[in-house]
Amino acid sequence: MNTTADITHELLSAWLDGALDDKQASEVEARLSQDPALQRQVALMMLNERRLRSEVHRMVAERPIPSALSALLEEPGVTEAREAKQREPLSQRLRDWLSPAGFGPGLVAASVVTALVIGIFAGNQLDSSLPQPAQALALADMTIESGDRNFALLDAQPAGEPIALGDDIQGQVAYSFKNSDGRWCRQFEQHDFNSGQSIAGVACRGADAWRVELLQTLDQTRNDSEHFRAASGDELEVLDNFVMQRGTGEVIVGEPEAELIRRGWR
Amino acid sequence: MENLDSLRRFSFSLTGNGADGDDLAQNTVERLMHKGVPADAPFTAWMLRVCKNLWIDQIRSHSKMQLADGEEMEHHLEAVDGSAVAMSKVRLGEVAAAIEQLDPEQRAVLGLISVEGYSYREAAAILEIPIGTVMSRLARARSKLVELASEAQS
Q1: pLDDT > 50? residue A89
Q2: In this structure, what DSSP letter does residue A17 have?
């Protein structure tokens, strides 16, 4: 896979780890905001890392310690020295990847969150008097049918390519995947530049409509740019966990995704 | 126990499967007990360095080390959790097969930084290589995994 000429694999990899200085990071982010192919590459890199970390941790957790190794450790002289090590940003995002799908404190006021989310979907001005917990999650039950502008985003927009959903609202699909029940699903984001509100969610394709199954509000500091900025991995950790628990591991990008769009996700 | 988990994870990252990973972890503990750890060396970093060096030695000596044995992993998963891990099985096979495509040095960097969460500087110290080499090996490993994932989808 070729990376865009002036963004090397090494630069992209270091950006993922938060290892670039501010100037370099800004340059990478500027390119990312304009380059869907590069965005897809970053998405794939992050998914690969999550799988790798998840599966290695799972093997250690599930596989009993061999008796010979246990016996060795019971001998005197084996120390249990511990060190605190500073984790890099990407690793921090992936740190709790294996945790069960408990949604934790983010579920506070789920009904309010759902209302906020629906507000964004409808393109309405959000009520700033309502509590707006960052990282809040809501299990959603919302059907998007043909004719709804969000249907165009979910049904026809390739991953990584933003689309206008109104005067101040942009949407983007992050990636598509096959759910364990056989349905095709997509992780998407929307940003309201007027209010600064952003959401991310997962929707799955039914016979003729998309069903939104999980929604998450994102932080409130995203209105400082005129460009759509994809949420970072740490912002979407729980949502990604939701996807990983239900997906088959098959992520669809590029031509296979384009073919699915042409076939109407059948 | 924290150190043991870290050692086993790193061993699995290097070998790509549970049985060989545990063999490597056990060999590492035996080596540490036999040779000891220098008084001025950080224990975990030293342990992982010994582990990586042992693994490279084993590869070079054409040991019985097998990489990413899908059958063994499937057996392991069935023994652990039966049908409930059907989805995990798919992903595990994919990632293990992908790890097999990486060269030993790339696996070591990926295991330390992506799995264990070490910084570039710490990984460079453990592997005794320059930070620039850590960055380039990590970038190549990640690019290779992206390439393999893209091929798998096409």
Answers
A1: no
A2: T
For residue range A122-138, what is the model confidence (pLDDT) as tens digits? Answer: 333 333 332 333 334 45
Of the listed ranges A46-50, A193-197, A245-249, the one predicted with least confidence: A245-249
- A183, A203 contact by CB (below 8 A): no
Tokens 């056990």 map to which residue?
B26
Q: What angle do CA B107, B110, B116 make, to 5 degrees?
A: 120
C-alpha to C-alpha distance for A219 and B94, rounded to whole angstroms: 34
Q: Where are the strands (E) in chain A, listed by range? A: 137-145, 163-164, 169-179, 184-192, 198-205, 209-217, 247-252
Q: Which amino acid is at B73?
A: M
Cα-Cα-Cα-Cα dihedral sign, residues A259, A166, A149, A250: positive
Over the stretch A202-215, which tens digit does the pLDDT of each residue have?
Answer: 889 988 899 887 77
ipTM more than 0.90? Answer: no
Q: Which whole-number Å values give the CA distances from A138 to A112, A141, A142, B59, B71, in the listed order?
A: 9, 9, 11, 50, 40
For the record, the structure tokens of A134 come out as 């960052």
The minimum CA-CA distance between A168 and chain B, rounded to whole Å, is 34
**What is the token pair recorded at B121?**
């500087």
B79 inside 8 A of chain A by CB: no
Which residues of A fall within a CB distance of 8 Å from B89? none
B72 close contact with A: CB closer than 8 A: no
3-state secondary structure at position B153: helix
Phi, psi of A71 (to 5 degrees): -60, -40
